[in-house]
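Each record in this resource describes a single protein on a pair of labelled lines. An example record follows, reproduced without changes.
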Amino acid sequence: MKKSILLAACAALAAVASAAVAGADVSAIVALTAHSLFGLDPQVLGLVLAAAPAAVGYERKNAGGGDGGGVDASAAVLEVKKLVEAMGRGFEEFKTTNDNMIKAKADGKALSDFEAKLDKIDKDLTSLSEAKSAIDAALAKLNRPALGGAGEGAGDLAAEVKSFNDYRRSLANAPGHVSEVTTEQYVAYKSAFMSFARKGNLEMLTDAERKAMSAGVDSDGGYLLPTPMVGRIIQRVYETSPIRQIASVQTISTDALEGINDLDEASAGWVGETSARNDTNTPQVGKYRIEAHEMYAQPKATQKLLDDAAVDIEAWLSGKVSDKFTRVENAAFITGNGVSKPRGFADYPTAATADATRAWGTLEHIKTGANGAFASSNPGDVLFDLIGAFKAHFLANARWVTRREIITLVRKFKDQQNGYLWQPGLQAGQPDRLLGYPIVNAQDMPAAATGSLSLAFGDFQAGYQIVDRIGIRVLRDPYTSKPYVKFYSTKRTGGGVLDFEAIKFLNFSA
C-alpha cells in the first residue's frame, strides 16, 4: 500500500475525530472524506470509513452524547495499529533516503533530488504522527475522569453543588457568612441560567427562575457558570493545551498560590564519639508567589440563533469559550511576561552555568554552536549535553518541548553507532521520542533565530506550576454589538517556574 495513500487515510481519520470534538456535522465530514479519497485503493477508503464511527463514537461518548453508537473499542484500536504500521514504514523510507543523501554528499553528487524527496517524506511523517496523536487522544478520553463534576449521578450532583458553593465563598468578602446553596436551589439555578442565556431579560423569566438566578449573582457583574459547563470548558482547554498536560496544575480559591522553596539542604557529616562538633550550614528558604491573572473570551451569536430551540446553548458557549482560552493560555505559559498574564518558562533569564553555581531564579541553557541553527558537525551532541546537565531525579519524568520545525531538524540526527536519535511512537498511546524521551509539539515556542530558546527539556511537572482560580463568570451583553449578543466570560489563571533546576534550554547561538 503506498505511503501517500496511507497518509491521506490517516489525515482523513484525524479530521473526522477533530470534527467530532468540535461538534461539527460528522456525516458531512465523512462524505467529504470519501469524495477526497475517490479513486484510491478501496481497502484504504474502507479503512477510513470504518474508523470514522469509532472515532466519532468515542468523542461523543465522552461529551455526553450517548454511548457512541455501540462501537466496539477493538475496532478503534485496530485502526490505530494500522496507522502505527504506516508510520513505521514511513520512517524506514525516511532513513533509507537520508542515508543515501549522506552517501551522495560524500561522493560529491547532486543532492537536490534527495532533498526534495526527504522533505516530502518528512512532512508525511509529521502528518502521520499528528494524526496518530489525535486518535490516541480520542481513545485516552475513555479512561479520563470528567473534570468539574460534569456527570449525572447523585454523587456527581453533590460534587457540583459543593464546587458551586466553594466558588461563591471564594468571591465573598466574608467567606464565613455566605449561606450554602442547597441541591434544589442549585438545580433551579442551572435551569434558570440557560433560560437567561437564551432570552437575556430577567423580566422574561418566570418568578421562580428570577428567584433562582439570585444564587449565582456575581458582585462584579454577570453570573457564575454552572459547574458542569465549567468542567467541560476546563476539560477541553486541558485536552488542547500541551503545557497543561505536562505541568503541575493547582486549583485555588484565593488570588495567588504562595509557598516555600527549600533551596538547600542542612549540612551533616560523620564524627567520632569524643570529637568536636562544628556548626553546620543552615538551609536557605525562599518564598514563591504565583498570581492568578484574569483572562477573557467574548464569543457572540445573533439573538435569532439563540432563539432557535434546536441550538444547544450550553455546548456552543462552552466550546467557544474553551477555544479562546486555549489560544490565550498556550502562548502565555511559554512566553508570557508575567504582566497581567502568566509568566512563561521561556521568559525567565538563562545562563550557561551549572546548577551548583547558578543563581536561583535563572534557568540554564546550553548553546547549540551555531547562530539560529544546530552545529554543522555532530549536531546531536548538544542534546546529550543537555540531558547530562540534569540531576538524576528529574530525568524520570523529563520530556522535550519544541516546535514542529525543530523536530524536522533533529529527525535527521544520528549517534556514533549510526542510529537515529528520533524514533516514532510505534505503539498505541506512545509518543514520538528523542533519545528515549517524549517530544511535545508546542508551536508557541520561539522560532529558531540567533539566541532563541527554541527547545526546552526537563521535568515540567516539577518545574512549572499553573494555578486556576475556581469558577468562570459570564456577563451577557446584547447592546454593544447589535445584532449580536456577546457573552463576556472571564477566568483567572496564572503560571510560573517553581524549580529552576527542573527545566533547561538549548540556546541557538554559537
